[in-house]
Design goal:
The chain is α/β, with parallel strands linked by helices. The protein contains 24 helices and 21 strands. The protein has an eight-stranded mixed beta barrel, surrounded by four helices. It has a five-stranded antiparallel sheet with strand order 2-1-5-4-3, with helices on both faces. A five-stranded mixed sheet has the order 7-8-6-11-12, with helices on both faces. A hairpin with a 4-residue loop joins strand 13 and strand 14. Helix 10 packs across helix 11. The longest helix has 70 residues. The N terminus is likely disordered.
Length: 711
């Protein structure tokens, strides 16, 4: 029995030793797992914080760039250097913004937020700037601890400039290091607590070992894993999992820190979203904010079987306010317009239940969305009330501005089934209202869309005609009215249409001006006009005739006209002084600062620059004095009623007198009778063109006419 007892004792001791060994092994394995989990937590939290920091900085850069880009549209469009500087300085006030450079569509620096801007006008040699200028959109790159973010700014499809932000991530390493230290301290304390618990478990392992293991799992491993999952969710931007109960120790402190970080990120993102969707000047939603709200309204109207109407408002005569009184007065005018539109909506009880959405879409454009069973009638009533309100004079300092508005209305689902198409329809209707004489409204109908489609079809057909050689060039002579001797000729396009015969350029010029063929056709027109003019002989007094070519304003702004014209002149041998470049007065002031710069570049070639259709635009005397002009062409609409309309006669006399004051030559366009010729001569207008003086003729016939006059 003693032996048995000793053997049993040995077996118990052995079993105890084995159990202790297994427990030690299990404890060792558990501590190893804890160490590995701690290291994994540190690594993942560090990586998550670094990626989160970089992604957060990228998000801030993107949203700040977009916000600044939308805010800079008007300042860049009007070259408002003060507003550009204020925005640049405002951006620099943010601690994370290291630098900002705002540039024009050629990559030339406009402002960097500094006081002197020693590099103003210099080209920004940065690949990100070149990329957004070439492709549009955004481009970014990390340069060490600095994030460079370039953002292109467009007006419609036309680039008008951009900005380059540099944002610093220099604070990230310190934050990461501090977080690592806190995690290590927390894990060290946790490990020491576990080691103390091991001794107790060794004494009472048969009873408390399972409980100890469960406690470790619940108190340490599970919270660490939950926090690691939470850190990964924050990093990826996913919805956060429930954190559960927080232990009242360092792990709880860490969990609270992660929760505070999440709340701060969400709050910051919410503020940025609100800023990005609000118009700074009027406090209304901007285009982005409007689209978010209007899409919700449209879906609700779709689900509820209601109609939704868009009222698209474009101010008439607003550009005149900016031109005469400055952009600050223009901003005050826009704010007053926004207030009046809001007041109309607020006071019309018929719309209280529909909760209309009103927004400033940019520039001088506003839009209102409303949903009801009879949205079309409601929209028309609202539009007429807005027109009446905007028809009242708006005070601008000591004077008053008399504006109006052109309004277009489109209705869902009658006119379109999506918000994008509905906006397009309302915009087309607004354009129809403006073309009909402004200060009115139009409801969208199918005819407007068919007109757009017809225009697109004409552009395609014109491209094929150009490939087939159906376009031809005629020349209308420009005469000295006293001697009736031709001194030059204007090049005019014709289209020898296979079905409709010879079409004058008035029938298809708009498709060229707005279409993709503009550059190629302009290059061909310049080349053929210069080649024909080079063959024209000198008059009997030795003076060589000139050729005039009318160029679309968009081609001057967005094409390589200087290079194309230089190539055409060089290839033909035509002296630049014998080339007259004509551009309509209305096109000139579409983008004043850029147009002035391009004019000066063209003038450096040695050609003459004339304004055509003069009297139909909004030229100020100060602007005419600043432009490198050689002459004006009075629009044919004034010459047509010169003998019968006192107003047209007065305007014509004023233009002629102004031209003499500025030492500019003047041509009367559209002369159709001898009486008009005599009236023009009495008013000292010495040049003219029109069918009474000579119809357009072929290059060969024009050459013969010059040769006949030379004899």
């Amino acid at each position: 029995m003693s032996t048995a007892g000793v053997g049993l004792g040995r077996r118990i001791l052995l079993a105890f030793a084995v159990a202790v060994s297994l427990l030690l092994l299990m404890v060792g394995v558990t501590l190893g797992l804890l160490d590995r989990s701690g290291r994994d937590l540190i690594q993942k939290s560090t990586a998550a914080l670094e990626r989160l920091g970089r992604q957060g900085l990228e998000t801030d850069a993107r949203q700040l760039a977009v916000l600044l880009g939308e805010t800079l549209v008007n300042p860049l469009y009007y070259l408002d250097l003060k507003s550009i500087r204020d925005l640049a300085r405002s951006a620099l006030s943010r601690s994370e913004v290291r630098s900002i450079r705002i540039f024009d569509p050629h990559g030339m620096l406009l402002d960097d937020g500094s006081g002197g801007i020693a590099t103003f006008g210099q080209r920004i040699e940065d690949p990100l700037v070149q990329k957004v200028l070439a492709d549009g959109g955004d481009a970014s790159a990390w340069r060490g601890e600095t994030l460079a973010w370039a953002h292109g700014i467009r007006l419609g499809e036309a680039p008008i400039g951009g900005l380059l932000l540099e944002m610093s991530a220099s604070t990230f390493p310190a934050i990461v290091a501090e977080t690592q230290a806190e995690l290590r301290d927390t894990l060290d304390r946790s490990r020491r607590e576990q080691q103390s618990a091991v001794l107790l478990r060794l004494l009472i392992f048969l009873v408390f070992a399972p409980l100890a293991f469960f406690w470790v799992s619940r108190r340490v491993i599970a919270p660490i894993r939950r926090m690691a999952d939470r850190a990964r969710a924050i990093e990826l931007g996913h919805p956060l999992p429930e954190l559960g109960s927080r232990p009242p120790d360092e792990l709880g402190v860490l969990a609270d820190a992660l929760e505070s970080m999440r709340i701060g990120i969400e709050r910051q993102q919410r503020v940025i979203r609100e800023l990005a969707s609000t118009d700074r000047l009027t406090g209304m939603p901007n285009r982005r904010g409007f689209e978010e709200r209007a899409r919700v309204m449209l879906e609700q109207a779709r689900d509820g079987g209601e109609r939704m109407a868009l009222v698209f408002i474009d101010l008439d005569g607003f550009k005149r306010v900016n031109d005469l009184y400055g952009h600050e007065a223009g901003d005050r005018t826009l704010a007053e317009v926004a207030r009046r539109i809001g007041a109309v909506i607020a006071t019309m009880a018929a719309y209280e239940d529909s909760s209309p959405v009103v927004a400033r879409m940019g520039g001088d454009e506003f839009v209102v969305a409303l949903a009801s069973e009879d949205a079309a009638a409601a929209a028309e009533a609202l539009a007429r009330a807005i027109l009446d309100e905007l028809g009242r004079a708006i005070p601008i300092g000591p004077v008053y501005a008399q504006l109006g508005a052109s309004v277009g209305i489109a209705v869902f689902p009658d006119d379109a089934g999506s918000l994008t198409d509905l906006l397009r329809c309302a915009d087309l209707a607004m354009y129809e209202a403006k073309m009909a004489g402004k200060n009115g409204l139009r409801r969208y109908d199918l005819r407007m869309r068919l007109a757009v489609e017809s225009r697109a079809g004409l552009e395609l057909e014109l491209g094929a005609a150009f490939e087939r050689g159906e376009l031809l060039l005629d020349f209308q002579p420009i005469l000295a009215l006293r001697s009736r001797r031709p001194i030059g000729a204007e090049a005019r396009l014709g289209w020898n249409h296979r079905e409709r015969g010879l079409l004058p350029e008035e029938r298809f010029w708009s498709a060229i001006e707005d279409g993709r063929l503009r550059r190629e056709l302009t290059r061909w027109l310049l080349r053929e006009a210069c080649r024909a003019a080079q063959s024209w002989p000198a008059a009997s007094d030795g003076v060589l005739p000139f050729v005039a070519v009318n160029i679309a304003g968009r081609q001057i702004l967005h094409g390589d006209l200087e290079q194309d014209l230089h190539t055409a002149l060089a290839a033909s041998g035509l002296p630049p002084a014998r080339f007259h470049l004509e551009i309509s007065e209305r096109a000139l002031f579409a983008d004043e600062p850029q147009m002035h710069a391009r004019f000066r570049a063209l003038k450096d070639l040695g050609v003459q620059i004339w304004l055509s259709e003069f009297g139909t635009g909004c030229s100020g005397l100060s602007r005419l004095r600043e432009l490198p002009l050689d002459g004006l062409k009075i629009d044919r609409s004034f010459i047509a009623d010169l003998l019968s309309d006192p107003d047209d006669r007065a305007i014509t006399e004023a233009i002629i007198a102004m031209s003499r004051a500025f030492d500019l030559r003047v041509i009367a366009d559209g002369v159709e009778s001898e009486g008009q010729v005599q009236a023009l001569l009495e008013r000292r207008c010495l040049l003219g063109q029109g069918r009474w003086l000579g119809a357009p003729s072929s290059p060969a016939a024009m050459r013969e006419r010059f040769a006949g006059d030379a004899r």
